[in-house]
Write a structure and sequence with these properties.
Blueprint: H1 2-27, H2 30-50, E1 58-64, H3 69-79, E2 84-89, H4 94-101, E3 107-111, H5 115-120, E4 128-131, H6 136-158, H7 178-209, H8 222-251, H9 260-284, H10 288-304, H11 317-322, H12 327-341, H13 345-374
Parallel strand pairs: 1-2, 1-3
Antiparallel strand pairs: 3-4
Helix pairs in contact: 1-8, 2-7, 2-8, 3-6, 7-8, 7-9, 7-10, 7-12, 8-9, 8-13, 9-10, 9-12, 9-13, 12-13
Length: 375
């Protein structure tokens, strides 16, 4: 027993020394320390403000051929909504194409000359809305806003409402702000990029600097090397996720409904899987340039197949199956559900399983590759 404890203490001491050495390699350069913190902070702010699908400002032009009280009623609702801003009053239909082509207006509303006459005779009267389809999502939302305003005007003119009404309630995002859906996903996404790169560069850096051969004469085993190189990127990834989480919670004030402990438990599992992929890349790459190339080659497919931009369920079956090998898919799903829904472990346990399976595959693979490189 004493011999086992002595062997374990020596093994653990070697691991601590190697882990400390990896941290010093990463953090000794002041430029590296800045690179690990500042980009994450700036990216979280940029995504929060720039990557928004909410329609808060729509420039529109109008061709009012009616010049009636009814047309002015619709236009006053648009102008007073706080969303629509009238940029031009057109004189003829030939100007519509020019306004759209010049991007001076996202929408052009045309009200015909007989608009009020038909309404006074209890006839339906259509108005034309021309939308700039080059930005399809914003154009679709703007069209929906215009339709809702027209419906409101119809109810005001009729003096009554329909017999059947729909009352909708949105769960987890009551104001339908796209930022609420996007920002929690960044807790996993942004940290993955640098965590994957750090772990991918770990062995490749040593080969390029000529220190990799020194590992051949040390008492370290491939398992110790793998663990010692895995711990720093995992901890750095969790710290970066914490920075993003703090920005979301305190800067953008998006309320968190779930357990902070469960989120961190999920982030550790996610980062272990990511580091396993990175270490496998690092063991294969012969130099830092190759490691960076392989990493950047993987980041885009991992992001596109994660559900960050489009739902995984909408993808073809082949791509849907490929997402099961993507730790980011399950990292995003876990963080979103815990953060927004307040989901418990029983509800997100199936997100842990693919990440742990991926870690159990990639980490032994990296250790095997280390062994072959050391032999």
């Amino acid at each position: 027993m004493q011999q086992f404890m002595a062997t374990f203490q020596r093994w653990f001491h070697y691991l601590v020394v190697l882990t400390k050495k990896e941290f010093l390699t990463i953090l000794v350069d002041p430029a590296n320390r800045i690179t690990l913190i500042i980009p994450i902070f700036l990216q979280a702010l940029l995504f929060g403000y720039a990557a928004s699908y909410d329609v808060n400002h729509v420039d529109y032009a109008v061709l009012d051929q009616s010049h009636s009280q009814a047309s002015q009623q619709i236009l006053s609702h648009l102008d007073g909504s706080g969303v629509f801003k009238r940029t031009a009053d057109l004189q003829n239909t030939a100007q519509i194409q020019q306004v759209i082509n010049d991007r001076s207006a996202l929408a052009v509303i045309t009200i015909p000359t007989d608009f009020e006459d038909k309404l006074n005779n209890n006839e339906s009267s259509a108005i034309q809305v021309v939308l700039d389809g080059r930005n399809s999502s914003t154009a679709g939302m703007a069209g929906s806003y215009i339709s809702s305003i027209v419906t409101q005007v119809n109810q005001e003119r009729l003096g009554s409402t329909s017999a059947v009404t729909v009352q909708s309630r949105t769960w987890y995002n009551p104001n339908l702000e796209s930022r609420w859906g996007m920002m929690p996903s960044l807790i996993a996404t942004l940290s993955m990029m640098q965590t994957l790169l750090l772990s991918a560069l770990s062995v490749a850096r040593e080969r390029e600097q000529g220190t990799f051969d020194q590992l051949l004469v040390t008492p370290y085993t491939p398992t110790q090397i793998m663990i010692g190189k895995a711990i720093p990127p995992i901890l750095i990834g969790v710290i970066q996720s914490s920075i993003i989480l703090a920005i979301i919670l305190f800067w953008f004030q998006i309320p968190m409904n779930g357990s902070l402990l469960l989120i961190y438990f999920g982030l550790f599992a996610f980062n272990i899987a990511v580091v396993g992929v990175g270490l496998s890349i690092s063991a294969i790459a012969l130099n830092m340039q190759q490691a960076m190339l392989y990493t950047f080659f993987l980041i885009m497919p991992l992001t596109l197949l994660s559900g960050l931009l489009t739902p995984v369920q909408n993808m073809p079956n082949v791509l849907n199956w490929l997402t099961y090998a993507n730790p980011l898919r399950f990292g995003i799903d876990l963080v979103q559900r815990v953060y927004l829904e307040g989901a418990g472990f029983s509800q997100v346990k199936w997100d842990f399983l693919p990440m742990l399976i991926l870690a159990l595959i990639t980490l032994p693979l990296a250790a095997w590759l280390f062994k072959n490189r050391l032999s």
